[in-house]
Specification:
By secondary structure, this protein is mainly beta. Helix content is 10%, strand content 43%. It has 2 helices and 7 strands, in the order ββββαβαββ.
Length: 105
């Protein structure tokens, strides 16, 4: 599934992008950010934490957004585009936190 194009303003990329939606092996949503003109992969917007139990992730209503390192700016861009709402919940990973976000339909 591909979502509409939107303006992305990240740490290492600025421009018009789109989301390519798929699923991880555990059926949770996986979002890749692609350049809207070339389909070049810009970054993986979501992160999969299989050991983190949350039915909202399992039913596809929420995603974990990676907003660190090369992904800085991803959360703000997705919120501004109206694709997600930040719940304010931060889920610890090994060294950083992922942002739990509600998918806006």
């Amino acid at each position: 599934m591909t979502m509409r194009a939107f303006k992305f303003k990240g740490e290492y990329h600025r421009g018009i992008v789109r989301i390519q939606a798929g699923h991880y092996a555990n059926k949770r949503l996986a979002w890749r950010v692609l350049d809207a003109m070339t389909d070049e992969l810009i970054l993986q917007a979501t992160v999969n934490l299989p050991d983190y139990a949350d039915s909202r992730l399992d039913d596809g209503s929420h995603v974990l957004i990676k907003d660190w390192a090369q992904n800085r700016g991803t959360l703000a861009s997705l919120v501004l585009a109206g694709l997600v709402e930040d719940t304010g919940e931060m889920i610890p990973t090994a060294c950083v936190v992922a942002h739990l976000c509600r998918v806006v339909k």
